[in-house]
Amino acid sequence: MLSTIIYRSHISDEVPLKTLAKLAVEANKVNESHNVTGILLFNGTHFFQLLEGPEDAVLAIYDGICRDPRHHNLVELMRDYAPARRFGNVGMELFDLREYDQAKVLQAVLDKGTSKYQLTYDDRALQFLRVFAEATERENYFEIPPGDAWEFIAESSKRSLKEAVAATDDYSFVFQPIIDPLSRQVVSLEAVMQPASGVSSSEYLAQLPREERYEVDLKSKKLAFALAKKLGIDGLTLSINLLPMSLVVVPEAVDFLLQEIHANGLVPEQIVVEVTENGAIARADEFAAAIRKLKASGISLAIDDFGAGSAGLLLLAQFQPDKIKIDRNIIHDVHKSGPKQAIVQAILKCCSSLQITVIAEGVTKPEEWMWLESAGVCHFQGALFAAPELNGIPAVAWPEKVEAW
Ligand code: CA
Ligand code: CA
Fold this sequence. Notes:
Elements: E1 2-11, H1 20-33, E2 37-42, E3 46-54, H2 55-66, E4 71-81, E5 92-96, H3 102-110, H4 124-134, E6 150-154, E7 159-160, E8 171-180, E9 185-195, H5 201-206, H6 210-219, H7 221-231, E10 237-242, H8 244-249, H9 253-263, E11 271-276, H10 284-297, E12 300-306, H11 312-318, E13 323-326, H12 328-331, H13 338-353, E14 357-360, H14 366-375, E15 379-380, E16 389-390, E17 392-393, E18 397-401
Parallel strand pairs: 2-5, 9-10, 10-11, 11-12, 12-13, 13-14, 14-15
Antiparallel strand pairs: 1-3, 1-4, 2-3, 6-18, 7-17, 8-9, 8-16
The structure holds calcium ion (2 copies).
């Protein structure tokens, strides 16, 4: 199958520009032997390459390109399939945009195309090419330093309980902070149910009979609040997780939460309820009524795992939470993925218009965090800063800039 990959990258400082033509000739030999063709644009700072050929060959060449030290900040923009090559005439031509008049450059690139393939800008690949050549998206090229530009230094303030507070043998809770790394602030502490059997809380709840599931989910928060009290969370915000249906199916669910919040010396304004997108739409009216009651009592609402379910945008249209947490699958390797970057930027723009705070969850790499900070995310959760701690509050590893950078 004919496959296409397009990426953009930044030339490394130590590569002399005059070696580029030679570099292209070298690359061409490899491409030719793999039957891979395409076009390579250079604007003085960035490369833009379109690779076309049999899927395995394109992937093999792309893999080598990703590991090449002569460029960095490589972002994959598109991965797709096409009926014919767009640039099959020559091997892989290097096209230095600076040698062309701005008004003529696009036509000059198109002239390199194969006549068999209708080179019209209806084609996504050619739209990418046009945007790069015209430099209209350049403000979104966030250049981040290498991962080792920051060190993550753990503070020595871990708190944990020696004896369990458990009212049940079935589960306990782990706590994981949500932080603002640059202002070195813990924004909130999330309590996540940890079943004794070792499965995840969602698996544990899913295996319970329906009539018990929501009751167990809601009532488990009694232990979360009690643990928070024992740990002494002071003025911190506490985030708890609830299945949306737990607020609908269990009678007086919000009253139960309020009662337990007060019983443990907490205040509703200190509590954030995280709900996932999944299932919230099933009984939308009743769910909306429960949310109104939560909000009226002072409790905040966050949409959890945003982007992983099917109703995220509809939920946003129907009622707006105070926070959204972007799902870890979107956060993973966001610094290398054009589609993920576009999604995060759209979420940020939308949430900025709606005054909703955005949290990135599941952050494990310095590069992910750096890209997200550049894009405008301020609140983070993930093992890069602090892994969840059973019956305790973990120490946070705060980022510190390494001198050399
Ligand atoms: Ca959560
Ligand atoms: Ca989550």
